[in-house]
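Hi W.,

Here's what went into the run:
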Amino acid sequence: EPEVTQTPSHQVTQMGQEVILRCVPISNHLYFYWYRQILGQKVEFLVSFYNNEISEKSEIFDDQFSVERPDGSNFTLKIRSTKLEDSAMYFCASRTRREHLSDTQYFGPGTRLTVL
Amino acid sequence: LAKTTQPISMDSYEGQEVNITCSHNNIATNDYITWYQQFPSQGPRFIIQGYKTKVTNEVASLFIPADRKSSTLSLPRVSLSDTAVYYCLVGVRGSTLGRLYFGRGTQLTVWP
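Here's what came out:
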């Protein structure tokens, strides 16, 4: 069964540093998402991406965040200057565009980001 | 967006059937009901989705009454590995936006 993969599984960084979280969505999917989950909190939507542009973003997704699909397979989330409160699990998700079928989003295993 | 309400936690024993009910009084005509499962430190995993009546797959069943103001996820004969958080989500199928709204979910603990 195809699955979403994410690297690294755990990233430790110093406050103020830039991090890039990587995702490989399922190959025939066209919509891509980033969510995050602070320890003990709800899963929160960050951004959705389609046709090489952001289609929606939440209030969390400020100027420190950016997303990119640099090639046909990878989907990245960059945090320019990390803060302590950015420590969380970051999940990538993808779904197919075919709206007559289930719009199920498939999630990756996540990257645990720890900001010191 | 329809708000969902589900129990914070539930306990069960191995081999029992577990039913988790979700209330969504303000569900819209176009909304579908989707359930996800999440294990600690893992991404949410799709379980089942439905619009009305009953849906069954190899993992679970989803019961939706005629008024669609609630839904019940049924897990037959649970095992220890079913211990997880279960989320009920209500949203528009095929929405071009597609963002999912997760609540706090129901922590199901299965005991031996």
